[in-house]
Every structure is written in structure tokens, then in C-alpha cells.
Amino acid sequence: MLSLGPGSACDVCLEPFGTELRAPCSIPCGHVFCVSCLQHIARQNCPLCRTPFEARNTIRLHLDLDNIRAPSSTDELVASSSSDDAARQLQQRITNVAVDGATEAQTTQLTDECKSFLDTVPRAMYTDLRTAYKMLSYMCHVKRIYVEQGRNMNQLTREVDRLKAAIEVLKIEKRRMEQACQTISAERDQLAGDCQKLHDDVDKAEAQILLVTE
């Protein structure tokens, strides 16, 4: 029978594997989740790799509970105190960001540290920190959207300015062409007048020649 070692946890709820609804089950793609999470998956796709699976193809794994050593009370107290201190420090840093602000790099690093810490503890613990972490993550998301929109707006503004400048150039070219057309039209009228005068002069000369030869 396949088995898991002590300390293993479900990748969905992050709770340690146990018995009954917390018992570990493997699906065909190889990922392991607890019975409870598999029962609540709306679509039977692996939450990690999205590979489809059927409930009848899941394999229940054996959890080696007998070899799990219960930690001494001193170990538990030290671990709990260390986690509490880390949670308080992260909470205070989030508060400082909210009050004093921070750079994008500092905020990103803080959210990464919060996520790494919260992934190591049960979901029922440090609810205030989880709430603050979610708010900080949302704030970072909104800020990124705002920055991107500002960047797009700047690009649009530059494009509008470029088009306005191009329009002004076209207007100047249009006026130049209109003036050229007016000049050509005047020259054409002058040429037509000269041609007509020349035609009249030819007619007069021919008439005089006829008079002389008669």
C-alpha cells in the first residue's frame, strides 16, 4: 500500500493529513489531496495541474501515524512562540506600509514573506494576519492596474500629440497646395488671354494681307 510520511499536508486546504475526511487520496496525475477537498471540487480537474480525473480512480493512501512523534511541550511552546513573533512582525510591517507607504519592491517582498509564512501554518491560525495579507495583496493588484493604466494613458497622450502635429503639417501642406493651384490658375488665365490676343493679331494680319493682294 502506498503511504505518506508524517508531516504531509493537503495542497488545497494546507491541513495535515489524518483520518476520515482528512485521509490522503492520490488521483491519476499523481497529486495528493484530502478526501474532504476532493469531495468539494466542483469540476473533477486536479487543482494543481488541471488534469481531469474520475472519483472512482482515486487511490487512498496510508498515513504512517504510528511513527509520528508527539513533540514535547517545550518544543511546542518554542515553535508556537516563534510563529507568534513572526506573525506579529509581519502584521506590524503591513501596518507600517499602510501608514508610511513603501516602494513596489518592498511591498512585493512583504507579500511574498507573508504568503510563505501563512503557507506553513493551519488556515485557522492568524486570521488577522491573513486578512491584512489579503488586503495588502489586493492593494498591490490595484496599484499595478493603476500604474499600467497611467502608462497606457501617457502612451495615448503622446500618440494624440503626434497626430495633432501631423494634422498641422497637413494643414500647412494643404494651404501651400491651394496657393500653388491659385498661381497655376492665374497663369493659365494669363496664358489664355495671351493666346486669344495672338489669335486676334493673326486674324488682323491675314485681313490686311487680303486687302493688299486684291
From TrEMBL:
Single Gene Ontology MF annotation: zinc ion binding
Entry keyword set: Coiled coil, Metal-binding, Zinc, Zinc-finger
Keyword flag Coiled coil: yes
Span of domain RING-type: 10-50
UniProt organism field: Mycena belliarum
UniProt-recorded name of the protein: RING-type domain-containing protein
Recorded superkingdom: Eukaryota
Record InterPro entries: Znf_RING (IPR001841), Znf_RING/FYVE/PHD (IPR013083), Znf_RING_CS (IPR017907)
Coiled coil: 146-208
Transcription in keyword set: no
Gene3D superfamilies: arf6 gtpase in complex with a specific effector, jip4, Zinc/RING finger domain, C3HC4 (zinc finger)
Lineage: Eukaryota, Fungi, Dikarya, Basidiomycota, Agaricomycotina
One Pfam family, short name: zf-RING_5
